Amino acid sequence: MGTLLHFKQLYLEAFENCRPNYVVLFLKGYAIFCAVLLAMALYAFLFRVITGFDF
């Protein structure tokens, strides 16, 4: 759990004094988009492994 809190702290510090605000919003949205894509890729990989599909 401490690792997740550390990543949260790093994420918040990265945007602390960043200007202009529209760039901050874009980068935060992009970070969330990348996290969603990574989660989908991991889900697809694990689904293929569990159901026994050939690669």
TrEMBL record:
Spans traversing the lipid bilayer: 30-50
Keywords linked to the UniProt accession: Membrane, Transmembrane, Transmembrane helix
Source species, domain of life: Bacteria
InterPro entries associated with the record: DUF6747 (IPR046635)
Matching Pfam families: DUF6747
Name of the molecule in the record: Uncharacterized protein
Native source organism of the sequence: Flagellimonas spongiicola
